[in-house]
Amino acid sequence: IILALSLIIGIGVLGFLVPKLALLFEESDMELPLITRIVLGAGSWFVPVGLPLLGLSAYLLFGWLRHLARNADARAAVERRLSRVPFWRRGFQLLVTARFARTSALLLQNGLTMVDTVMLAGRATGSAWIGGILAGKAEHIRHGGSLSRALEETPVLGKALGSWVKAGEASGDLPGMFNHAAGRYQQQWTAFVQRAVNVIEPALIVAVAVFVLIIALAILLPILSIN
Question: Rounded to two decimals, what is the model's pTM?
Fold first, then answer.
């Protein structure tokens, strides 16, 4: 909501308010402050150049997202690159692991085989990259491989979930361990999202406030000079 309001404010100010102010200041025939000249220059370029570029960018972004939705290989490649980005990597790991653990616990409790559980839980992660890897690991498990070893070798899920699975295999309560792991990762995911919101929301508010302050100064300084 804050981001949408910010865009609306920016489009309204630069697209409609600033051009009208430019006409007013041109009629006054006065020396304008630097900040006013910068804002007026940005406003004069915004409608003929900025709006078309903004629309083109939105169109290209929409087309790219549709391409990713239809092409699992392209989506997997993007996820692989994003998994190396520090902030994104942590959130991606927590969300994918929580989904996999919760789905695995549910499927095992309802009597599905380990092979089917790994394959279906991999799809339930929502990640084409991890889902494809886990589909290969399911075949490995079908031929006698260890689940904990397969998960340890899977990117993102890593050794942490593999340790939970080892404990479940040793205790004979693998669904219960998956449930415990899912609860732990869900708590960490919730805390991660809350921290992200606590940073992003005030940052957006400050950005909007700075933008409004710049526009206000650009308007008020010439008016004060006239007075």
Answer: 0.75
